[in-house]
Amino acid sequence: MFIQTKFKIYSVIIFLYFVFFPHSVSAANLIQNNGFENGQNMWTPTTTNVASLEITSVSGEKYEGSQSASLKVTTTESSHGIKQKINAVTGGQQYKINGYVKTLTAPEEAYIRIAWYEEGKTSQLPTTNNSTKINTIVNWSLLDFIVTSPESAASAEIRLYVKNGIAYFDDITMEEYTESTIVTTVFSAPSTTPTPLPNYNNIYISEAMVAPNTGEKEWVELYNDNDFSVTLSDWYIDDIADSGSSPKKISITISAKSYGVIELSTSIFNNSGDTVGLLDFSGNEKNTFTYDYSESGKTWGWSELKNDIFCLQQPSKNTQNTACTQGWQPSTKSTQTSSEATVSTSKTKDSTRSSQSSTSNSSLKSYAIAVTPPTIFREGTVESEQSVLSATTSQIDPHASPGYLPLLAASYSLLSIGSLVTKMIYS
Questions:
Q1: What is the pTM of this model?
Q2: pLDDT tens across 263-317, in order?
Q3: How many Cα atoms within 13 Å fall on the side-chain side of residue 403?
Q4: DSSP string spanning 62-88?
Q5: Where would you tag: which of 23, 154, 259, 394 has the fewest CB atoms within 10 A of its CB?
Q6: Do 207 and 174 fall within a single domain?
């Protein structure tokens, strides 16, 4: 009797462990020579400009093993580093990527990027994923992020990047990732309703290349203003509604307070004026801005972080935006002061594309409207004939649940589990 009771107690303990401590199952590391114990074997430079990139294997700085890789990049124009091709990936599969970085002086940026390729193709797919970017002095800081490979991906390329500085990399891993979580529901009726995809707020369009140089691609940069990483599954990049171009489906993971870039395989934006829009998986507008002209090789982007003012600028993909061109300075006033447009901000009720129904009246968007000269208007008013240059939106969620409900549910679940444990022990 004692042995039987003891076995039941152990069974209950194991059951409760998996209830309250969900675990993940991961496969073997896909990166070869991930700790640089064999020098630079299996790794190659990302650029042929050897004058701006210095790669060395060092033993004095290491996270594990006997040495690490030191990357010194002297250019401020772009990031360079080393890469490794991964020949067997599965489309639509989640992967967890880890790596450690150390800096003795602050670089402009140091990070890990994963790029995806289709079978037999040498050009990468538009979707790339980046870790958090380091621009301070750190002592072996962990860079980790979870990504979902595009459905058509057959191979990948892991890249270790540095811009204008020196960084040490070590212990790089890439593994298939499957999250395994046991969820208990007490006295709940069966349901066939599918689990909805998460619908994030605070995701903004920060910059867009709408008129790339010959041979280059259009791209849209997004900014995640949340304090946690987000995965946008089956979202869309679109131009002006009902313009003829189909929305482009995207899936991307963006770290907290970080940028992510979507490169478009085909052009959808008009050089003479268009709208750049971010739609969620249901086709609802999350963020948009409108421009009425463009310059080849320049982007439309925030003049400052989240200030609702867009202007032409030099490209700054995956980094903080550069200054506006032609010496124009951002202004929160609605009076024209130069050849560039200034902006006023107004509030209006939230709406979706014309094909969507209206949302709740308590959900708001904030629009920033830019006008072209020589029109002058007072703050808070916009003449009906002014042309729109830019608009940004931000969602406010009025439907937050009361804070006591999760505590009440957890207490009820614990009481039920206690009753079950007692019954199992003494039955």
A1: 0.41
A2: 888 888 988 888 998 999 888 888 888 888 999 999 998 877 766 788 899 999 8
A3: 0
A4: -SSSS-EEEEEE--SSS-EEEEEEE--
A5: 23
A6: no
